[in-house]
Amino acid sequence: MPLFTLRFPADEIAAWAARYDASIDAEVEGEVGPFMRREGYLTRDHFLTLARWKSPRPGPLCARNEPGFVETVTRAAVATTDERFRIEVLRLLQGVDWPTASAILHLGSTEPYPLLDVRALWSLGHDTKPPYTFDLWWAYTTFTRGLAEAQGVSMRTLDRALWKFSEDHQGRLTPAAVPAP
């Protein structure tokens, strides 16, 4: 059985993405992501904005990170060519686990990285949240890169489609229904 199976026809990706409310992404897409791609790191303020956008729950932990540490860690993630180091170094930041680390790469890297998210995983055939590991993240990254390329869409478009399809078909996820990462 394949690790990922898209729950809707791939030729509907653009249509599902178009139904997503992109206004909630304006600040991270218009300011935070471009800054990181241009400068090669995140400021603490940009990091906190991005982390809050991905998930407000770990915000108090994220706020404990010193500005210099945020810059050092995010620079290291951008500078390396080692994929495992790239994702895992971001997890050194307080309040950052796999989903937020993936969001930093998704928005701030010049390479396409997916957002690791229970909604996206549901749209790819996972009824329950699998344990987050490097192997899962890398398989997910490889699968979504291939899918986006095959369909001629950006990773952001694919992510929006996966999220929106889950929102409409899986129903409302509540914090009690989603185990913490």
**Kindly, what is the distance between the CA atoms of the first and last residues, rounded to a whole number of angstroms?**
25 Å
Major pleated sheet: none
Could you spell the SSE succession in H and E letters? HHHHHHHHHH
Shape: globular
Key terms for this structure?
mainly alpha; disordered C terminus
Report what the structure shows.
Helices cover 59% and strands 0% of the residues. By secondary structure, the chain is mostly helical. It has one domain. Helix 5 runs antiparallel to helix 6. The longest helix is centred in the last third of the chain and has 18 residues, at 134-151. It is globular, with a radius of gyration of 16 Å. Mean pLDDT is 93; it is low at 173-181.
Structure at a glance:
This protein is mainly alpha-helical. It contains 10 helices and no strands.
Helices and strands, with pairings:
Blueprint (H helix, E strand, L loop, with lengths): L12 H6 L7 H14 L4 H11 L4 H4 L4 H13 L3 H8 L7 H11 L9 H6 L10 H18 L3 H15 L12
Helix pairs in contact: 2-3, 2-7, 3-7, 5-6, 6-7
